[in-house]
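I hope you will forgive my troubling you with a question about protein structure. I should value your view on which stretches of the chain appear to form regular backbone elements. Here, with my thanks, is the record as I have it:
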Amino acid sequence: MTQIPIILLAAGQSRRMRGADKLLQEIDGCPLLLRSAQTARAASSVIVALPSKPHPRYDVLQGLDLHLVEIADAEEGMNASLRGALSAVGQEAEAVMVLLADLPEITLDDLQTLIKATKAYPDKLIWRGSTASGQPGHPVIFSRLLFDQISRLTGDEGAQSVVRDHPDKVHLCVLPGQHAVLDLDTPEAWDIWTKNRNS
């Protein structure tokens, strides 16, 4: 399989952060969005779905080798971002990785684990990060055979319906700890995670 581009979903509105932008929260002095983009770029080419301009998230990513896609209808939810970013994926891509920008523990090793799984399990159509107990999460790689179905999605469910439609074509890739499922959507979640990380 040729290089798998990464769609980094970063157009959400952080409504549960009560005025703060979770993607601009800093980890070791680095905004989460920048950290996620740099991790993704180390693994592959990256298409970033972003809110309409002007927005401070653009400033955070300035100067990086990324393809930034403005999602004019981002208020619709995650699938607007998926559709917009997917339209920027080149014809040569045999698959695409969908990565949420708010997963603070995702590493380059995690992304490479999923990419390697596409070669180890070529009979599958979906390769998905999970916990050791089998709880599915992110990132998720989708075969090009599913691009058309993804491009027709609407609303805020993401591609969960696509995954449900192909249960026998999903391979779960175990990632360390809670890497695949930990996102930080509230100030309280950020405080708890930061305290545990620094303890």
